[in-house]
Amino acid sequence: MKLNHLERCKTLLGTFVEIELKGEVENDELISLSEELFVEIERIHHLLSFHNEASELSSLNRQALDLTHTENGKVLSLNVSKDLNAVLSFALQLNKFTHGLYDISIAPSLILDEQLPNHLSLKLIDSKCTLTFGNSANILCKNNKVTIDKPLCIDLGGIAKGYAVDRALSKVPKTIYCRINAGGDLAINQWKNEEVALKYSKSNSSLRTVKMQNKALATTGNYHRNNKSAIVQPFTGKPVKFSGSMSVFSSQVMMSDALTKAMILSSRSQKRKIAKYFNAQAIKINRLGFVKLYY
Amino acid sequence: MKRRHFIKSTLLALSGLVLVPKIAFSKTFLTIEQAQKILFPDQKLTPFIVNLTQEQAESIEDAIDIRVRHLTINAWRNQQNDWFIVDQVIGKHENIDLAVAISHQGNVEGIEVLTYRESYGSQIMHPKWRQQFHGKNSSEFLKLDKQIKNISGATLSCRHVTDGINRLNQTWKQVLKLL
Fold it and tell me: Which letter does DSSP use for residue B33 in this model?
């Protein structure tokens, strides 16, 4: 049978999601597989989206915020889906490894900076207020059960997109070539000998082409955000200015996605430790195109 | 020092005028026929071009506060009165051709990005520059493309596509539903 090829793009996860499939199967089979992958990405989005008030994450946040500061000893304990469990578990592992630098409980800072909607009606005046909430150290997650002992608000924006791509890729048979690119979070199952262009500023010519180092890649940059930054220093509650881009290759897009943020916030020696521990390769490109590698 | 600065800025400004604006990045995903096959499998679609009147366009704009840039709608219909529309969305930096399926009950049943063009020049806001792409088959512009298969960068928002879909939804409510 001849090699068939399909390339589609849809708007999901608040960005453009491209799926490319190639294989010696009927074209209709490629279409139905692509449909299945888009559905899986959408399913994860509905579970883990901060913007969606009906998501599992929003429900968790509402309950976590109901724990008032005065009620010492009150603990929230609830069962969560295996998807939320997988994302939370990795986020907490990375939080521990980076001594709190990577933190998913920075939602109050992002709400204050108007980067997230305030549908949970948080009263925030300045960045000091954001520090009164709990952080990742107040969350425990094990065997699909989450325990939270202080009011807090979680945003999985820096990790859930990567997890959605991982889930979708896991549904592709090995015989079919698959490339998924969800707004820069990229996974290719047959990644060897593939090249990728890393973008480091608004200009379209700001690209550095490199060989894929692993099957997953994520890039973070603030150049589309009009001087705003989604990277928050959790100890001050303030957004961190960052120009250029940080890209991370690893075995999972969720890992790459989260590691880009951890790398930006870490010192040079910490960056190398993180890369080594997670068997990842990081490429930092400044706004002028100068490259630094961490692996 | 001031003189040098003046010469430098003048040269930069002049080069901006002389250099021909071009699309730096463009990607084609599906042809119109492929999108029809995906959104309306095994169904016969008949071309049905709709020309909005100025009043209709203004009424749509008033209802949703989104600008109607083109009065011509490139549409197809099936026997059940479901619509297949090829539309163009202009963002701050991007120009996107979309295929949208709207059911006879007015529900958006599917959206496919046909062509994505990213530009960071002021030309994207220029009507003449945009006009060259409107209602044409994406393949006509492949000669302009600089095809880069994999790009990983900061996440781009698709808010403008959402605005475009809202505009088409309103167009269905006010115009297409009655045809």
Answer: H
The continuous run of DSSP H or E covering A197 comes out as strand A195-199
Which residues, 6 or more positions from B18, have their beta carbon under 8 angstroms from its beta carbon? none
- Positions in chain B short of pLDDT 50: 1, 14-23, 133-146
Per-domain residue ranges of chain A: 4-22+176-294
- Chain A interface mutation, best of B150, B156, B161, B162, highest count of A Cβ atoms under 10 Å: B150
- Kindly list the domain boundaries of chain B, sorted by start residue: 21-178
Residues in A whose CB is inside 8 Å of some CB of B read 7-11, 14-16, 18, 20, 31, 161, 179, 181, 183-186, 188, 194-200, 202-205, 207, 212, 217-225, 245, 247
Q: What is the Cα–Cα distance from B147 to A226, expressed in whole angstroms?
A: 27
Global pTM?
0.86
pLDDT at A158: 86
Give the CATH architecture of domain A4-22+176-294.
Roll (3.10)
d(CA B12, nearest CA chain A) in Å: 16
pLDDT digits (tens, 9 = 90+) for A1-43: 789 999 999 999 888 999 999 999 999 999 999 999 999 999 9
For residue range A268-283, what is the model confidence (pLDDT) as tens digits?
A: 999 999 999 999 999 9
What's the start-to-end Cα distance of chain B, in Å? 68
